[in-house]
Amino acid sequence: MTTRNIWRLAKRPVGDIADGDLEFLSEPLPPLAEGQFLLRLTYLSLDPTNRIWMSDMEQYMPPVEIGAGMRGGVCGRVVESRKDGVAVGDLFAGLGEWTDLMVSDGTGLSRLPEIPGIPLAAAFGTLGLVGPTAYFGLLDIGQPKPGETLVVSAAAGGVGQIVGQIGKIKGCKVIGIAGGPAKCAWVVDELGFDACIDYKSQDVGAELDRLAPEGIDINFEQVGGDIMVAVLKRMRWFGRMPLCGLISGYNAVDAAEPPGFWTQMLMRRLTVRGFIVTDFAPRFAESGMALAGWMLEGKLKTRQDIRPGLENAATAVKDLYSGGNFGKLLVEVTPP
Amino acid sequence: MTTRNIWRLAKRPVGDIADGDLEFLSEPLPPLAEGQFLLRLTYLSLDPTNRIWMSDMEQYMPPVEIGAGMRGGVCGRVVESRKDGVAVGDLFAGLGEWTDLMVSDGTGLSRLPEIPGIPLAAAFGTLGLVGPTAYFGLLDIGQPKPGETLVVSAAAGGVGQIVGQIGKIKGCKVIGIAGGPAKCAWVVDELGFDACIDYKSQDVGAELDRLAPEGIDINFEQVGGDIMVAVLKRMRWFGRMPLCGLISGYNAVDAAEPPGFWTQMLMRRLTVRGFIVTDFAPRFAESGMALAGWMLEGKLKTRQDIRPGLENAATAVKDLYSGGNFGKLLVEVTPP
């Protein structure tokens, strides 16, 4: 265990992530200092925000520096420890690097509970990262009420699938928007969404008019662009829009913002609120317990899209921006 | 008392309100039916929303129909009653018509308390209408905390003057934006704002950089357009924007919305929420008592801009859109 593999940011992407933007290196492993421990990563989480961190656009934490290990959500087990209270075999998850062996003093990590009946990929992928995003975004900001109409874009993705199912648990009519018939069928047939619009083959606005002639109370926004505009035009009075992501613009070279909807926000008394899941970190125990409970009761299903091999991370991440993933995208760094 | 004067909407304005859009008529007064009473109006409130109601743009209540009496905030005393529990001399305020004698069954009206030490123009103009707008918009949506920086546009207007003073009561640094040195001096010297930017002679963005290098936590938005854009660019993380009005666009023939700030709303986790004061109607007693208390304690000063004569209403209302009023704009229909 004297070397490790790591993806480093070689240069900032222009437009789509290209070969060579990230560099896969084998490096000597630095010895542990007092207070540090070594994690062998099991899963690496690939998320839309990865592209933000690679850029120097305005963002909510410092971008990854050129030459630094690529930042990502990770989980792994302790294989060596020089930190009090941390033992070999302990399971941690949080923010780390795209590597197989990670030296940490615990900053940005927390212990991941192992819950019988919930596989590690679901516990990490759903309870650890995208679950709280869906939970707080929908419940705190969206404030769903029984009978209301909820639209969620990127419906088959990591966050979207959970948002829609929580919406159903809360008694909403849930309309997903996803790319392709397989994803649309899955969120309706397997997850119980009321409907799903295939943005690749259908006119989103016309389908919304047909499926939700009453208008939309909550728009859980993840994609931005024309899809967001189509939904926003159909918001009802006192509608809420948790603004979780704008993935359609992350790869844009000359990003044109969707237009403002200021007059409509005023007249219809809409609430738009941007958020990042870490804003809710002090309440992660609440979301984790609620989500785990729904999973154990069979009310919350999840689907991961697991790609084996750290060396494939830089290729896999591109699928997020083309819709090539089906479920929460994870890289299996080491078999669990 | 067999005739009354009334302003009726003759046609919808195109651009600025023009002579002939409103028609001043003398009409026979219809006899009171059972359950009705007759109010002699004391004050008519002129508000930015008047222009919205005259148009057929998207809005939050039905527009005024062509030929109907122009809608407005009114207060007046009962001069004749055929309604149980309503006596001659009772004072009412609420939504009514631009008239001197108004027949009502009480719909849209409520009793206006007469508080010793508070003149009727202030009680009606401040406690009855713009006060709750400022109170709920700032406190419920803006959620000011001590030490935060609050910017309020249209700072010397009816709502803005109260927003800024409540901001000071709550411990904020308050920066107003107003047109001309007299208004700017008044909000600083008389009302205790920390600073005021004269948008007619100063570069709003540069002044904000100088006065609030720390950025802006709360933008109480009333005007839209370039001023809103200058403020939005300087919002701090977790900033809030009560969206109260967009007056700069109300007279536009081909209204161009200010651009979207979606990426910034996401990355800085901003909250934008549109509201109309009537959304808070069930809580008007709360705002009325709080505002009256601050007025009696000398912490809340108000300035009305009172124009005598109902016949002058159609001319006076135009001042709202050119910045020609200084304080809450009222028409004195009958001496109080």
Overall CATH architecture of the largest domain in chain A: 3-Layer(aba) Sandwich
CA gyration radius of chain A, whole angstroms: 20 Å
| Count of DSSP H/I helices of chain A | 10
Residue fraction in strands of chain A? 25-35%
**CATH homologous superfamily title of the largest domain in chain A:** NAD(P)-binding Rossmann-like Domain
Total beta-strand segments of chain A: 15
Q: How far apart lie the N and C ends of chain A?
A: 18 Å
Which structural class fits the helix and strand makeup of chain A? alpha/beta
Largest interface: A-B, 35 and 35 residues
Averaged pLDDT of chain A = 94
H/E element order of chain A? EEEHEEEEHEHEHEHEHEHEHEHHE
Give the key terms.
homodimer, Rossmann fold, 15 strands, seven-stranded mixed sheet, 10 helices, six-stranded parallel sheet, Quinone Oxidoreductase, Chain A, domain 1, 336 residues
General description of the model:
The structure is a homodimer of 336-residue chains. Chain A contains ten helices and 15 strands. Chain A has 336 residues and is an alpha/beta fold. In chain A, the strands form three sheets. In chain A, strands 3, 4, 5, 6, 7, 14 and 15 form a seven-stranded mixed β-sheet that branches. Chain A has a six-stranded parallel β-sheet with strand order 10-9-8-11-12-13, with helices on both faces. In chain A, strands 1-2 form a two-stranded antiparallel sheet. Chain A has helices spanning 49-54, 120-142, 158-169, 181-189, 204-211, 225-232, 262-267, 284-296, 313-316, 319-322; strands at 3-9, 22-28, 37-45, 71-81, 91-97, 101-104, 109-111, 149-153, 173-178, 195-198, 216-220, 235-243, 271-274, 304-308, 328-332. The longest helix of chain A is centred in the middle third of the chain and has 23 residues, at 120-142. Chain A is globular. Chain A folds into two domains: 3-112 and 303-332, Medium-chain alcohol dehydrogenases, catalytic domain (Quinone Oxidoreductase, Chain A, domain 1); 127-279, NAD(P)-binding Rossmann-like Domain (Rossmann fold), CATH 3.40.50.720. The interface between A and B is medium-sized, with 35 and 35 residues. Strand 13 of chain A pairs antiparallel with strand 13 of chain B.
